Every structure is written in structure tokens, then in C-alpha cells.
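Lab notebook, bench 4. The sequencing result for the construct came back, and we need a structural model before the next group meeting so we can plan mutations. Quick request posted to the team channel:

Model the 3D structure of this chain.
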Amino acid sequence: MDTKSLLIETATILFQQKGYKTVGLNEILKACKVTKGALYHHFPNGKDELLITCLHALKEEITTDIEAIFSKHLSTKDAIISMIDTLISSFEKDGTITGYTFSSIVSEMSTMSEPVRKACSELYENIEHIYCTKLLADGFSAETAAAISLLLTASIEGAMMLCLTQQSTDPLKTIANLLPNLLERF
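Done. Here's the predicted structure in C-alpha cell form:
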């Protein structure tokens, strides 16, 4: 793996696990076994630029994963169940859902840095767009699809955060049982 990719991958994991403010550049450098010069070669504006790059990489990774799951299922209901099952399996296997949740970064940084807030917003909008597209294909109106997409995004992201704080998959299992029923009511 090249140095830039290593920095992005390592920093993403550290930011998700510990938060942006808690992770120092020295910790990232030590974990990657690279020099400060190597970091600034790839990210001349330092830690903020690295974070934004990490968020863009997360956006691509999450989008690819969600689109792959959604393409395998005819209905939004089945796709959501499959996606939540994937998250539950990931948590049970690894004890975390590092690759999917970025709420800790958003809550910590959204009011401090406009470029970071924008990168986070784009990630959420992308997820909502995937849900909305599937809901439109299921026959929902544009207005209803947009509202349900917001509900799905908030519910799943919130459940992932609760799983991490409770060290339990129960929140994801709860929404896996409730969300499909809600979709049928619309």
C-alpha cells in the first residue's frame, strides 16, 4: 500500500475510534511508521486536509457497499434488512462498526470547520440518495421517498452509535424489526 493510502486508511480508523480531536498527528505517524514530512507531502494543509480526504474515502466506500447491497434486492424493505444484517454481523465479528459510522466526527467537527461539515453533509446526502432512488423504484412519491430516506438514514446511523455505546447489537436488531413495518405503512 502506498504512503498516502496508508495515511488515509489509518487516520480514518483512528478518527472513527477516538475522535478527531483526540488523535494527534504523532499517533497517526507512529501507526503508519512514516515521517511528518511524508504526511505534509501528501496533505500540505495537515490534519484538516487529511480528515476531509478520509471523509471522501469513506463516502466512496460506504456508497459502494450500500449500492452493492441495494442492487441485490428488488425492494427497499429487503435491501434495508440485508444492510442492517450486514452491520450486525460486522459488529458481532469485530466489536465495532468502524467502516460505516462517522457520527462521532460530525458531532465533534461540524461547527468548527465548514469544509469538514460539508464533507459530512455530502456523505449523508449520498446515503439518502441511494435510499431515495430505491424507494422511488418501489413506487413511492418523491416527497415520501425523501422523507423516508431521511428517517432511514437517521435511524440506522443512530442505531449504529447506540450499538457502539452500549456494546450491543440490540439497537440495530430493534430497527431491523421496526423499519420494514414502517415502510409498509406508507
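The radius of gyration is 18 Å.
Will bring this to the meeting.
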